[in-house]
């Protein structure tokens, strides 16, 4: 559940979106003009995500976003831009928006993009690699501070991408992480459906952490869902 601020002057759009986000379990508040939104954020309110319309009475979404980023506000911002105004998209990204959706938008797509931004945000909050220290995966230890896998007498250095991928899987604590989300978090761009990159890394990591890479018990690929890291398959799940 996240606290989401919607800044949108068109009531039917704001309410429709609010309804759907509340149904998903989020706490949502709507502000209908730029100045009110600005007061809220300048007053210290920090929602988990802001949906920001560009065309607003008072201050525009572009002005707001620029101002907030200049103040050091790091909240993810998704902009709503008008169709036919391509400049808005570019400007929005230039002033620090994280993503944009063009109006009239497809609701499913907008909701998916919001979830994706919130997932990324969760990861930023979770442990950075160094603080993970040493994580035991079956018979080997991953030393995140040194960037190495230790297995018996063997010591293998991990590349930074291998480390990042492992870190995200460890941070998920046994939950399945979608391939698209991993692509964005580790490589920094959406996969667009092409996730072979991840598969190659998975094969490499399995050679390091699995007792038998052909029959993985730790680094599991869940068909149609994503990847899951089980550091201790002997232990019953959920404990
Ligand atoms: Ca508007």
Give a brief rundown of this model:
The protein has 239 residues and is of the alpha/beta class. 41% of the residues lie in helices and 21% in strands.
Task: Characterise this structure.
The protein has 239 residues and is of the alpha/beta class. The chain has two domains: 124 residues, Response regulator (Rossmann fold); 101 residues, Arc Repressor Mutant, subunit A (Orthogonal Bundle), CATH 1.10.10.10. The longest helix has 19 residues. The chain has nine helices and eleven strands. Helix content is 41%, strand content 21%. The strands form three sheets. It has a five-stranded parallel beta sheet with strand order 2-1-3-4-5, with helices on both faces. Strands 6-7-8-9 form a four-stranded antiparallel beta sheet, with no helix packed on it. The site of calcium ion has 5 residues, from loops. Calcium ion (CA) binds next to loops.
Please describe the biggest sheet, giving its number of strands, its sense, and whether it closes into a barrel: 5 strands, parallel
- If you compute it from the alpha carbons, what radius of gyration comes out, rounded to the nearest whole angstrom? 21 Å
Q: Shape from CA axes?
A: elongated
How far apart, in Å, are the first and last alpha carbons? 23 Å
Question: Order of helices and strands, N to C?
Answer: EHEHEHEHEHHEEEEHHHEE
CATH topology type of the largest domain: Rossmann fold
Category by helix and strand content: alpha/beta
Total domain units: 2
Secondary-structure arrangement, i.e. CATH architecture of the largest domain: 3-Layer(aba) Sandwich
What would CATH call the homologous superfamily of the largest domain? Answer: Response regulator
User: Helix content range of the residues, please?
Assistant: 40-55%
Q: Write out the strand line-up for the largest beta sheet, numbering strands in chain order.
A: 2-1-3-4-5
- As residue ranges, the low-confidence spans are none
């Amino acid at each position: 559940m996240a606290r989401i601020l919607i800044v949108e002057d068109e009531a039917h759009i704001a309410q429709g979106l609010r309804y759907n986000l509340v149904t998903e379990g989020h706490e949502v508040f709507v502000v209908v003009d730029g100045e009110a939104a600005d007061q809220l954020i300048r007053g210290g309110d920090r929602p988990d995500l802001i949906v920001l319309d560009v065309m607003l009475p008072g201050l525009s979404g572009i002005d707001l976003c620029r101002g907030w980023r200049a103040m050091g506000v790091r909240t993810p911002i998704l902009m709503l831009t008008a169709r036919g105004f391509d400049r808005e998209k570019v400007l929005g990204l230039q002033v620090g928006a994280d993503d944009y959706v063009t109006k009239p938008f497809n609701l499913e797509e907008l909701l998916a993009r919001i979830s994706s931004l919130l997932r990324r945000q969760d990861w930023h909050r979770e442990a950075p690699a160094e603080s993970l220290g040493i994580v035991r995966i079956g018979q080997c230890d991953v030393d995140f501070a040194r960037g190495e896998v230790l297995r018996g007498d063997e010591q293998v250095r991990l590349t930074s991408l291998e480390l990042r991928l492992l870190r995200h899987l460890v941070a998920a604590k046994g939950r399945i992480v979608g391939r698209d989300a991993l692509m964005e978090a580790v490589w920094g761009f959406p996969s667009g459906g092409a996730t072979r990159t991840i598969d190659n890394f998975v094969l490499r990591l399995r050679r390091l952490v699995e007792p038998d890479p052909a029959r993985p018990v730790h680094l599991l690929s869940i068909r149609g869902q994503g990847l899951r890291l089980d550091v201790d398959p002997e232990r019953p799940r959920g404990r």
